[in-house]
Design brief:
The chain has 19 helices and no strands. The chain is an all-alpha fold. α12 packs antiparallel against α17 and α12 packs parallel to α18.
């Protein structure tokens, strides 16, 4: 294989790797902020097009559904066709889709643009994580880089609502999509200049039956969560279809062995399994909380949308700050201890929020949110590092896609299950307390699992 297309390609110079990191973080940050700010634009979009509530819901959900369905495809293409190539293709697709959204003449065109943007994100996210695994070969450096990469998620949560609200207020809803165009273009140029190409086909190829079954199963899981609140019967049917498709996917992959879209021997790696389960449990609790807290606050504590967004800010800011130190903590304590401690702090934060539910004053709640951000910041980077570091570099794209699938499935199920716990209670305060405590129990179980399966381990 050509040296430039090998996972062991020549290590780029330090300055070049710095530009590469800026490029990867810029693209990921743009994708995450886009998701955060579109929520704020739904009202003006509805007013501009005279759109119905279901149509506005699909402005959000079409993106999430496409992203979920094509994650595995994006990860495989990164390994087969080239990780830089797929990253650049994803950035180009995302940028062009955002431009289409900005000029959308109808709600239908806007939804189509969001579908295409979801496809771009499904290429960007796994390719960026795989590139970190391949470009930063030194484990200590990679841990630091993963902390910065993880911090971009918290940074998006912190600045997304503020930036989006300002743009929408001053320039209108189309401005949030125009913003992506220059940033995406810069990421494309920098990627071409600073990121080395690498690919590892290694006898694998595009497996259409597995692609179809995998995409359908992931899309059905996402659709089930989308419809859980409005059409529970339809949601259960979608979940059942996802399970059937998932069983078919496993059967197809078992027959294909090492050439499979998702080689099942990856799940025989203890550390990889632990990282997958711990990641799913972490996002189960956090995305469920992020969904429920604004709902409960606006319903029981009479906070407006802006005040609710500001109340979540401490969590995002602490997430960013702690993520930047997660590499150092992993180096000193090991991945298992760092992840286990982070998840334990996260569970304590959710418990503090539960304890303060229904009481006057937000001090304990804000402390709880700070603790959740602290725990997420400690655990996110190391979990990503363990997942991609536990497998050979040739499988980096697939591993990166799978750990993001775990994030997506955990978040999807968390919103549905914790939302159901909240809805079944006699009042909003009780429902929020029960949901937060349930989420904390799930996270504690995952903390124990992380400690046992990852003890003493540092990402390679």
């Amino acid at each position: 294989m050509d040296q430039t297309l090998s996972a062991t390609a020549a290590r780029p110079a330090s300055r070049q790797r710095g530009v590469a990191l800026v490029t990867l973080c810029l693209a990921v940050l743009v994708a995450q902020i886009d998701t955060a700010v579109v929520n704020l634009a739904l009202h003006p979009i509805g007013a501009a097009f005279g759109a119905s509530v279901p149509a506005l819901q699909w402005v959000l959900d079409s993106y999430n559904l496409t992203y979920a369905a094509f994650l595995l495809t994006g990860g495989l293409l990164a390994d087969l066709a080239g990780r830089r190539r797929v990253f650049m293709a994803g950035a180009a697709v995302f940028t062009l889709a955002s431009l289409a959204c900005a000029f959308a003449p109808t709600i239908g065109v806007l939804i189509a643009g969001r579908i295409i943007a979801g496809l771009g994100a499904a290429m960007i996210i796994p390719a960026s994580l795989a590139l970190i695994r391949v470009v930063w070969t030194d484990p200590s450096e990679r841990r630091h880089v993963l902390g910065i990469w993880a911090a971009c998620n918290g940074l998006a949560m912190a600045i997304g609502p503020t930036l989006g609200g300002l743009l929408i207020h001053q320039l209108g809803w189309r401005s949030i999509f125009f913003l992506v165009v220059p940033l995406g273009t810069i990421a494309l140029i920098l990627a071409r200049l600073a990121i080395p190409e690498s690919a590892d086909p290694d006898g694998r190829h595009f497996d259409l039956p597995a692609q179809g079954l995998g995409a359908f199963a992931l899309a059905a899981v996402a659709y089930s969560a989308i419809e859980a609140r409005h059409a529970p019967g339809l949601a259960l049917a979608a979940l059942a279809a996802a399970l059937v498709a998932g069983a078919g996917f496993v059967r197809v992959e078992a027959r294909r062995g090492a050439a499979a879209l998702v080689p099942l021997d990856l799940f025989r790696i203890r550390a990889f399994r632990g990282a997958m389960v711990a990641t799913a449990g972490m996002t189960f609790a956090m995305y469920g909380a992020l969904f429920l807290l604004p709902v409960a606050w606006q319903g029981t504590d009479h906070l407006g949308a802006i005040a609710a967004g500001l109340a979540l800010m401490p969590m995002a800011l602490v997430f960013v700050a702690v993520s930047l130190t997660s590499g150092m903590l992993t180096r000193r304590l090991g991945a298992g201890a760092t992840i286990g401690a982070g998840l334990s702090v996260l569970a304590c934060g959710l418990t503090l929020i539960a304890v303060n539910t229904g009481r006057s004053g937000f001090l304990l709640t804000e402390l709880g949110l700070g603790a959740t951000g602290f725990g997420m910041g400690m655990a996110t980077g190391p979990l990503m590092g363990v997942a991609v570091g536990a497998v050979a570099a040739a499988r980096a794209g697939t591993a990166a896609a799978l750990i993001n699938v775990a994030r997506m499935i955990g978040a999807t199920i968390g919103v549905a299950v914790l939302g159901a716990v909240y809805a079944q209670a006699r009042d909003g305060a009780t429902g929020l307390r029960d949901a937060m405590l349930f989420g904390a129990l799930v996270v504690i179980a995952c903390a124990v699992l992380a400690w046992r399966t990852l003890e003493g381990r540092s990402p390679r």
